[in-house]
Amino acid sequence: MLGIKKQWYRFMVQYEWLIPLGLSLGAFGTLIGAGGGFVLVPVLLLLYPQASPTTITAISLAVVFFNALSGSWAYGRKKWIDYKSGLLFAAATVPGAILGALTTEYIPRRPFNLILGLLMILSAVYLWVFRVGASVSKAAQSTDPRAEESNQKKADTGLFYNLKYGMGLSLAVGYISSLLGIGGGIIHVPALVSLLKFPVHIATATSHFILVIMALTGTLVHIASGSFAQGGVRQTLYLAAGVLIGAQIGAAISARVHGVWIIRALALALVFVGIRLLVMAV
Q: Which one of 85, 104, 199, 260 is least enclosed by Cβ atoms within 10 Å?
């Protein structure tokens, strides 16, 4: 009996700390509309140096799905999600997500770290230099829920973006995010804001909604291909328990954070994680 208790204690110590990690990722990922995968993947690479990129991306995509599902429910109550655009863009991400999940296993660990690190730093530079807000009006940056509702109605008309361009972009995002297990929000949010002229808070909420479908697609492909057979189920469950709660926190505080600061926080996080990955790849 004593032996069983010791084994249970070791199990809890080994995985229990993943819950607060998931909570932090859920809150931050939901706040910036990125799902948290861009932070989780590097963390998992550091924690499990022997794990394959396939296992890491499988865990991350599954956690991103739970994060996005919880965050989308919270954003849906605020009426910040542009469902029409979200469904169209999500449909475009599905083929890319399937292809990305299937090709992950062909990328060795060091090139995987290098590609992900470079992508994050380039995205951060773009965000910081152009501020993403240069083309965003003051009304779009407002954190007033009533102003956001007005912007939501405008976004629903489809007048702010080219549909074909948006779907083509979403296809590429689906592939890259599923390939690297980062969720795609770090690409989708700045693209929705700077290229398609979405208000910042509508962009983060809609991006989260798109992530639900995209991450679920990639996760199901990983399950079907046996990626979780190599391990990671326990880590996924503990992280998911944390992000489900954290996503609600992130959505709750999003209305109090200025749109520009959301983008700046995203850029800083990208630089930090990107540099760490490049160091690992050298």
A: 260
